[in-house]
Amino acid sequence: MSQDNIVTLENPGWDYKYVAKIGEDHYFYLAKLTRESFIQLWQACSSVEQFKASYEAMGGGTCRLPHEGATPIPVESVHKIQYTVDVLRKKNITLKDYDANDPAEEAMWEDLRRLASAHSRRQVQNR
Length: 127
What we know:
Layout: E1 14-22, E2 26-33, H1 35-44, H2 48-57, E3 61-65, H3 78-90, H4 106-125
Antiparallel strand pairs: 1-2, 2-3
């Protein structure tokens, strides 16, 4: 993804953004956007990949540091992003659906639906 596709927020809010020391010489960088900033960024992006790249470019995510003063290069997992989106949706917050409704992927999703349906039918028949 090119830098042109990175979305930034003017004044992002952070639930936390710090370096933690664990043990004698292990340092970890941790940063998480507030729900409000997460939602603003999600709505401004056009794909999960763009969201992930933008989140990381703003400093969101985690990483291990070789020493306390090292420059962090945080990474965030797609699973954690999806989990946050799912939690927000369960709280009735309407978010863009670009994460699962890409027309180019519809054939893949339909194949998975057929596979799951066939498996369910076999389970019922075997009883």
